[in-house]
Amino acid sequence: MFKPVLIILVLFPVCLLVDYFNDTRWLAGYTQFIREWWNLLLVLLLCKNIFPKAKNYKYDIMEDMRVNQYLAEIQRYFNTPYVPPIMLLYLKNPPGSIRPADYAYINDTFYRLVVNSFRDRVYVLQDFDSIEPWSRPTYFDVIGIKNITKCLLYLLVPFIWIFFVHFILELSMLTDWPLLTLPFTLAAFQRGLFMIEAFIKFNPLRLEQELKENDCVIQVTWRDAFPDREVGITFVRAYYLEMERRQRCELTIQGLTIPDHFPEWKNPHFAPFPYPSKTIPSWGSEYEPYYEKKSMELNTQLSTKNSNVVSFPKIN
Q: What is the residue range of 111's domain?
């Protein structure tokens, strides 16, 4: 916004010099133009400054929604012996930034969140009391009351303000002083639309489709996710490939030569190694017999519970 204002101010002495050497009246005409159209010029300058930044808000909302969805999904599997499918998805296909910018991708921390949540659980010998995950939280729970309220405010307040100006103040949004509020009114409504777009992008049906497309709708025990098993090997390979990809992107931006072999990356925004240790825990060999025994017990309990249900005939 500073540059356009500077240009407008610089044109005053420029017009003065032109008038001085050519006996013209450019300064008077330019001054009259500014007096008549200053409000429209100010609105255009505000729009130029506000609207490009609105997309950043769009990406912020989408990234918040992605985190909310991920945390809600892994919580469903807390009392089961299985790795959450959404965790499988992101460990097999490391996610980048939603914001379409190179440095945003390089420094995105969502993959770090995924890896840390995996590391915190993978080597823990934790009991489980169910082989089925909890019910998926409602879509509104994932979105959150705060985001829903903000979205409604962003969509409704502009209409309330326009109604107030037109019917209460009896002024025009295009010719009277409320014109100065137009950029903020439109920006608020735009934010509401961006929030709706984020809500649609991270809906449960879309997640289910993505899990199926990536073969993640499977039951993988935590023991099968160890680095000596096929799934664990896939996680490690994906980790090193993602590290190399981000390093290559960083070097390309900096205009540096891309080496044949990449060293260990020290970027604090990147994820740590997926496993706390490359050594398998001592209880690893004991887990599968324990899992089989506990699963049979839970299945027996579930069968007994279902067989005790008595069906009553309908009374006509």
A: 79-133+217-295
**Closest by alpha carbon to 74, among 34, 122, 28?**
122
Q: Quickly state the pLDDT bin for 312 (edges 50, 70, 90).
A: very low
Helix runs in 2-144, H state only:
2-22, 26-76, 85-92, 102-106, 110-122, 139-143
Q: Are 106 and 250 in contact (CB under 8 A)?
A: yes
User: Distance between CA atoms of 205 and 207, rounded to whole angstroms?
Assistant: 5
Cβ count within 10 A of residue 301: 11
d(CA 231, CA 234): 5
Within a domain: 307: no
Q: Residue 221 pairs with which residues in a beta bridge?
A: 82
Q: Would 86 be classed as within a structural domain?
A: yes
Rounded alpha-carbon distances, angstroms, from residue 50 to 1, 2, 72? 10, 13, 33
The count of domains in the chain is 1
78-123 pLDDT, tens digit each: 988 899 999 999 999 999 999 888 889 999 999 999 999 999 999 8
Q: Is residue 234 part of a domain?
A: yes
CB-CB contact of 83 with 235 (8 Å):
no
Write the pLDDT tens digit of every residue in 155-174: 999 999 999 998 898 888 87
Q: How far is the first Cα of the chain from the last one, in angstroms, to the nearest whole number? A: 76
216 with 89: CB under 8 angstroms? yes
Domain membership of residue 278 (yes or no) is: yes
